[in-house]
Design a protein that fits this description.
Elements: E1 9-15, H1 26-39, E2 44-47, H2 56-60, E3 67-71, H3 74-77, H4 83-99, E4 106-109, H5 116-121, E5 126-129, H6 138-147, E6 165-166, E7 171-173, H7 181-196, E8 200-206, H8 207-212, H9 215-230, E9 235-237, H10 239-250, H11 258-263
Parallel strand pairs: 1-2, 1-8, 1-9, 2-3, 3-4, 4-5, 5-6, 7-8
Helix pairs in contact: 1-9, 6-7, 7-9
Length: 264
């Protein structure tokens, strides 16, 4: 966690799930771990079954400490999934993670499940949904929003049902419409500048797409993350850290007595 002031928040997460497994690109995972560690940044690494991932040892061996999150699947966490199926599959994955010594408190999903109370009982505190419009490219969306002065970043997340926080992704990197890496970098950096002025920006890094871009993809991401470190009025956190900070902010402060205030 890198915190300078409370002016704005930048959340970093990585998707290690579909369209192809994390294990297909072990060298790319190493590049990402090295990049984050070198900049002193922590991110949330979402994968379908944390206890079964062969690459998490590398992720968890670096400093600062990285968070491991669970990426749900539409077959058991989608709108048509029954409560029984959701409970069984979530429990199986979180049981395995706990047995492996992994604390999982963040979920990533394409849609909001109707059974989030089950997740809350497991100690899950955050839900990350995908950007609202996957059909609109990051470049086009960024340009349109910044011309209006809004930026891609939005208002700070708030708690939703069962006490879970919706810490939704603002954009994917690289964008799913396969626009140029240069355009993705410029758009992300504009969002970071806007977030530093008091906004919220959540960058969801798609490891599979980044791997397809090769070394150029890592260099592009390095430009974005390096730019974020330069923004002094920006708290750079993973999903769990973001929720913890917001919960701390909402704690009632003990009232001081009149005599105590006078003595101070």
């Amino acid at each position: 966690m890198r915190v300078q002031t409370d002016a704005g928040s930048f959340v970093i997460s990585l998707d290690l799930a579909a369209p192809r497994p994390l294990e297909a690109a072990p060298s790319r995972v190493g590049d990402l771990v090295k990049l984050l560690s070198g900049l002193g940044l922590s991110a949330t690494w979402f994968c379908p079954d944390p206890a079964a991932s062969k690459s998490l040892d590398r992720v968890l061996s670096v400093s600062p400490v990285q968070e491991v999150g669970l990426a749900t699947d539409a077959t058991w966490a989608g709108p048509s999934a029954t409560r029984t199926v959701y409970h069984r599959e979530l429990t199986r994955r979180l049981d395995r993670a706990a047995a492996a010594g992994l604390q999982v408190s963040s979920l990533a999903s394409d849609t909001e499940s109707n059974h989030l109370d089950v997740a809350a009982r497991w100690g899950v505190t955050a839900l990350r949904l995908a950007p609202k419009s996957e059909s609109v490219s990051l470049v086009a969306r960024s340009l349109r929003l910044f011309r209006s002065g809004a930026g891609v970043c939005g208002a700070s997340p708030q708690p939703t049902r069962f006490g879970l926080w919706r810490v939704d992704a603002s954009v994917h990197f690289p964008d799913r419409e396969r626009f140029s890496l240069g355009g993705s970098v410029r758009s992300a950096n504009r969002s970071l500048a806007s977030a530093a002025a008091g906004g919220f920006f959540h960058l969801a890094i798609n490891v599979a797409l980044l791997d397809q871009a090769g070394a150029a993809g890592i260099k592009a991401l390095e430009r974005v993350l390096s730019y974020s470190v330069q923004q002094q009025q920006l708290a750079i956190v993973n999903v769990r850290e973001y929720v913890q900070r917001r919960l701390q902010e909402r704690k009632p402060q003990p009232a001081q007595s009149i005599l105590h205030r006078r003595a101070a």
